[in-house]
Write a structure and sequence with these properties.
alpha/beta; 7 helices; about 15% strand
């Protein structure tokens, strides 16, 4: 497995920082809008679509803002980067594969690419940052969200059938927290990682300045791909927003779900019965 040129590590870290900033800002907007529009309990594909539009708007807004500066700053490599994500595109071919492989038919949720002009090998000059998204929380029917986060998410970065981010050194998982608390989810996720023989994950910690985002990262060992691979985990907490949205749509129904309301109703019923007696 060929490695990256020594020079090509510099631009990568700068690029990842900017992509990561777009992701976090997009998730913040997603959370805010979920509370207003009630899509916090949506399926993964719908949440991804909502997130895509928000990240695209943010990337476009920031690029326009940069171009509007006066006097215009001297252009650098970073000004040429397209920070708009690509949604559900196939894995890109690897120069290490002599022919088409099954992984080229797989589609991670989001990708960002840039041309690394510090790379000495032109076949390795296109760098790609891959992101996979999954729902987190209580299982619904036979769909066990926290197990699937590992089995159909994290493992796709290491298994030969997918090998997301094969030729690069990092990527991300996005987790949509829809129920359960973060610590309980993390405990289940870490147990799944151990069962799969993957590196343990530190408990995701709140991101400074955010009320909804949690972050953790670990390194994965991989075969037939660049290794070690740093995988960031960014979780957005949609639980309170789901409750707020439900109350706005149907306040009476929300009161019915309130245990205090139920007890008060029982007490009133008993009082009426006693008076009748």
């Amino acid at each position: 497995m060929a490695g990256l040129d020594a020079l090509s590590t510099n631009l990568w870290s700068s690029f990842v920082d900017k992509v990561d900033d777009i992701i976090r800002a997009g998730l913040e907007r997603l959370a805010a809008d979920a509370g207003e529009n009630g899509f916090g309990t949506s399926c993964e594909n719908d949440l991804n679509r909502e997130l895509f539009f928000r990240m695209r708007r943010i990337a476009t807004e920031r690029h326009k803002s940069l171009l509007s500066l006066s006097p215009r700053p001297a252009l650098s490599r970073e000004h040429t980067w397209n920070l708009v994500p690509t949604s559900e595109a196939n894995n890109q071919p690897s120069p290490d594969d002599a022919e088409r492989t099954p992984r080229e038919n797989k589609r991670p949720d989001f990708q960002w690419s840039f041309q690394d002009d510090e790379a000495e090998d032109s076949d390795r000059a296109t760098r790609t940052y891959v992101v996979e998204c999954k729902r987190l929380g209580q299982a619904i029917g036979g769909w066990i969200f926290n197990a699937n986060y590992v089995g159909h998410g994290v493992r796709r970065y290491v298994e030969s059938s997918h090998l997301y981010g094969k030729d690069d050194v990092g990527g991300s998982m996005i987790g949509y927290v829809q129920s359960m608390d973060v610590e309980t989810i993390w405990t289940e996720i870490d147990r799944q990682l151990n069962s799969a023989g993957l590196a343990t994950l530190p408990q995701p910690a709140p991101i400074l300045g955010s009320s909804v985002l949690h972050l953790a990262s670990h390194h994965l060992s991989r075969l037939n791909a660049l290794s070690p691979f740093q995988l960031h985990h960014i979780w957005v907490d949609l639980r309170m927003l789901v409750c707020q949205s439900a109350c706005k749509r149907d306040p009476l129904s929300a009161r019915k779900r309130d245990p205090l309301t139920r007890w008060r109703k029982v007490d009133r019923t008993r009082a009426v019965a006693l008076r009748a007696a």
